[in-house]
Amino acid sequence: MAGSGANAAIETALRYHEATKHSEASLRGDAFSLDWANQPRPFKIYRDLESVTLPADALSPESDAPPALETLAVTADDIRAEGTRECVPNLGILARVLHLSAGITKRKSTAGGDMYFRAYPNTGGLYHIDVYLVAGDLPDLPAGVYHFGPHDFSLHRLRAGDYRAVLLEASGDHARLACAPVIAISVSTYWRNAWKYRTRTYRHCFWDAGTLHANLIAVAGVEGLSPMTVLGFADSTVARLLALDPKREAALTLTALGHSTSAAPAAPPLSELALETLPQSGSEIDYPMIGEMHVASSLSSGAEAAAWRGGMPAPEADAGQGEVHALEPTPAGDLPALSFAELVRKRGSTRVFDRARAVSFEALSTVLDRATRPIPADMLEPPGTTLLELYLIVNAVDGMQPGSYYYRRREAALELLQEGNFRDAAGRLDLGQDLAADAAVNVYTLCALPAILERFGNRGYRAAQLEGGIIGGRLYLGAYAQGFGATGLTFFDDEVIEFFSPHASGKSVMFLVALGYPDRVALGLGR
Question: What pairs with residue 389 in β-bridges?
């Protein structure tokens, strides 16, 4: 099922996953320390490119915007009903989409300089994901290939002309790309993350692209753009279009935005570009397994991409044995009125949880309901397909016994696996940190990795990590929309599986998010 070539040699992904696991021994034997003098800059900045400043006045909050939790309530029917009406974004719509998915939302001055916080959560706050746009002629933007610069809130043009047909061919003629007036591309510059996380950065590429896409899918939906993310494409073609350095950067996803009844014209000749960017830092260290994993999970042609996508059976859970709690999400009429724009500007990452304050079962139900709504992506077809399963450690939720739980997605219910106070265990699984021990709930996304690789090849590793990041991003959004907090955490891989076994035996961890109320006293915010 995985096809032929490097992508089918799934031992590469299994070897990479095993090599990048955290364990007690790996942490104790690691003498690595951060080289602060060599910290990379947080932006990719091109020299001497023509720029289009995005309209800041388009970011003003709209009084009639729907509640944020309503924007996350996408259904499989919503995805299927892509619509055929003309929906071509203008520069104002693109400004909102880019700002609320990848833009700067906060600045903080420190002794070491200004810190810039983006719209989406990111490992280490290092923001190694960039967004490019490949557009046809729009009402107020000429056709071209553009890089979004968060630092100056502008689009920087790499190429003039309509190159959407290049992406259509690279994807194997994906139907949504064929009618999209704009296609967004997410790209990682490895070193901006590897400076701190080294070889694990390839995991983080898709974690961080996933949290960005949680925002992108939601805000593009608000704007009526019917987003669809495509993970199946010929990698070298997209890299050449964007003039990426294949040893240092990688295109991760394509996302169709909008709908046009006019087909993309034939693309201009794809000339080689020599584009200069400011250095990331004084020197860069290469971690070979990152590049090896990317090459091994690459597709060589549009035909291979078309054969790759879709068709993964949903995980089959065993019949429930424990007590079951059916979710009770907040009714639509009672949702907090916070708009998506207000939510993104409010969101952060909780650094200290208040272990004395419980989350309501209704609030947890709403978070889980929104986080697990269908994701519009080509590896999750038909809509509603998932590669992942959710496991929880519940420390403090009103109406629930503390313990470990499994989320039965089809029934929208939580099954009790084992009752008990597992705060210490949760802290241990989070590399011995207090955050997971103090949180009200810890949500782990797990998958049957061998089965995914058997179906999708090494690229299935990208798919599972990306879905984990999107679910993680939605968990953040669902928590902050209801007035509490969240933070993404890392973990001892094998110990997590052991903790949830025998139910989780043979599975792999993709993502972890802790949820709960912040400890305002510890944060110096008073009561």
Answer: 446
**Distance in angstroms between the alpha carbons of the first and the last residue of the chain:** 57
pLDDT along the chain (527 residues), means of 10: 79 97 92 95 95 90 78 88 80 97 89 84 96 97 98 98 98 96 98 98 98 97 95 98 97 97 93 95 96 98 93 67 92 91 93 96 98 96 94 97 96 97 98 96 97 96 98 98 97 98 97 94 58
The tokens describing 96, both together, are: 């909102």
**Residues of the chain by 3-state class (helix, strand, coil), percent to 5:** 35, 20, 45
Q: How far apart are CA 144 and CA 203, in angstroms?
A: 31
Question: What is the C-alpha separation between 221 and 206, in angstroms, rounded?
Answer: 21
- Residues ≥6 apart with Cβ < 8 Å to 210: 465, 466, 467, 468, 469, 470, 471, 472, 473, 511
pTM: predicted TM-score of the whole model, two decimal places: 0.96
Rounded distance, CA 71 to CA 325, Å?
A: 25
**How far is the C-alpha of 137 from the C-alpha of 63, rounded, in Å?**
30
- Determine phi and psi for 4, rounding to 5 degrees: -125, 180
What Cα–Cα distance (Å) separates residue 323 from each residue in 20, 311, 406, 411? 35, 32, 11, 13
